[in-house]
Write a structure and sequence with these properties.
By secondary structure, the chain is of the alpha/beta class. It is built from 15 helices and 13 strands. The strands form 3 sheets. It has a 7-stranded mixed beta sheet, with helices on both faces. A 3-stranded mixed beta sheet has the order 1-2-11. Bound molecules: pyridoxal-5'-phosphate.
């Protein structure tokens, strides 16, 4: 067999096209724990890329909880929740999460991506209609495909448009939205979404991956931010891999929804439970989320500092009050060049390009952490100020 027999010319051509379009992605190999400083190769970078918003991914108490639980429960869950993988730490975490967000029940999923797929497919079939904000996360978009319902997309946060779409549909209806939009950082108008869903007999699934732990006085997320209890028709999906610093996801809702997911959700039934030690670590991080409001206070100060500074520099910002602070640059080349220039100064900020964001809205996506110091945010602002400077 010659070398060329092993090559797939079609895949090769596709990859070449991605490269030519500057859309080719590669991974960095990180040598350190998560934190505002991370080590790649032999260099230490100041990172503005992580979703570890509260600095819990490598918190000593969380690590310690993980280690002691691993000593008792081992590393793997060994089975799915319905067979023999549902351990005491999983169950306790579910009860604590339900208490945290104020719902009768919560149910752990292995990832947020799988939770979205599993919720939508358990509640909808191909006779239903799913409504999606155009800026929804990929996992919500894929969830609608997975259940084969028909899909109607509405322009970002355009609830008048959503209302008119909801009027025309007489089948079972489910509205999907991010709580905090992952690429723009703005917060979905939940009170109006709830009213609309209620008035039109639709259910509402809110994916609060970026709100959980971060916004709301006690870190309860988008619902707490709006002073809105999580009640039918709402279903909340929260992830554990972002502000909570660990791994996995949960769904919070009333009894009937949770039991339906346990019976019918394929991405719940047919997969291994997260390791019990991860559940135990998450119980500790949830405790820190609830008991240490100073983390959210720090984060708020850094967000305000960054926005003030960026405005003074005349950067194109979006209306975001969350740790996700995009700096719009337009085309992919400009965004890539900016990310590269920052990198040369040992600062990591990802360039986000189409198809992840709409065309001509390529951007630097700055994410802030409670662990960033004022000096570190100043360092980022200084570097951004130099971007337009050809001598860089
Ligand atoms: C990260 C993310 C997910 C996926 O969660 P994982 O637990 O990482 O699979 C889902 N929705 C949104 C909005 C996210 O940002």
């Amino acid at each position: 067999m010659t070398q060329s027999d092993l090559e797939d010319p079609q895949l090769r051509a596709q990859l070449e096209r991605l490269r030519a379009q500057h859309l080719y992605r590669r991974r960095e190999i990180v040598e350190s724990a998560q934190g505002v400083q991370i080590v790649i190769g032999d260099r230490t970078f100041l990172s503005f890329c992580s979703n570890d918003y509260l600095g819990l991914a490598n918190h000593p108490e969380v690590v310690n909880a993980f280690q002691s639980a691993a000593a008792h429960y081992g590393v793997g869950a060994g089975a799915s929740h319905l067979i023999s993988g549902h351990s005491r730490p999983h169950h306790a975490l579910e009860e604590e999460l339900a208490d945290f967000v104020g719902t009768p029940r919560a149910l752990l999923f292995s990832t947020g991506y799988m939770a979205n797929l599993g919720i939508v497919a358990a509640l909808m079939d191909r006779h239903g209609v799913v409504f999606e904000d155009k800026l929804n996360h990929a996992s919500l978009i894929d969830a609608a495909r997975f259940c084969q319902a028909s899909v109607k997309r509405y322009p970002h946060a355009d609830l008048d448009r959503l209302q008119s779409l909801l009027v025309t549909a007489d089948r079972s209806k489910l509205v999907l939205t991010d709580g905090v939009f992952s690429m723009d950082g703005d917060i979905a108008p939940l009170p109006r979404l709830m009213d609309l869903a209620r008035a039109r007999g639709a259910r509402l699934l809110v994916d609060d991956a970026h709100g959980m732990g971060v916004i709301g006085t006690h870190g309860g997320g988008s619902f707490e931010y709006w002073g809105q209890p999580v009640r039918p028709p709402a279903i909340l999906m929260g992830t554990l891999g972002k502000a909570l610093g660990t791994f996995g996801a949960f769904v919070a809702a009333e009894e009937e929804v949770i039991e339906t997911l346990i019976q019918r959700s394929r991405t719940y039934v047919y997969t291994t439970a997260i390791p019990p030690a991860v559940a135990e670590a998450t119980r500790t991080s949830l405790h820190l989320v609830r008991s240490e409001p100073w983390r959210r206070q720090n984060l708020r100060e850094r967000i305000d500092q960054f926005r003030r500074g960026a405005r003074e520099l005349g950067l194109r910002m979006l209306e975001s009050t969350t740790p996700i602070q995009p700096v719009l640059l337009g085309d992919s080349d400009t965004a890539l060049a900016a990310a590269l220039a920052l990198r040369q100064r040992d600062i990591l900020v990802p360039a986000i390009r189409p198809p992840t964001v709409p065309r001509h809205s390529a951007r630097l996506r700055v994410t802030l952490s409670a662990m960033h110091t004022a000096a570190q945010v100043d360092r980022l602002l200084d570097a951004l100020a130099q971007l337009g400077n050809p001598s860089l």
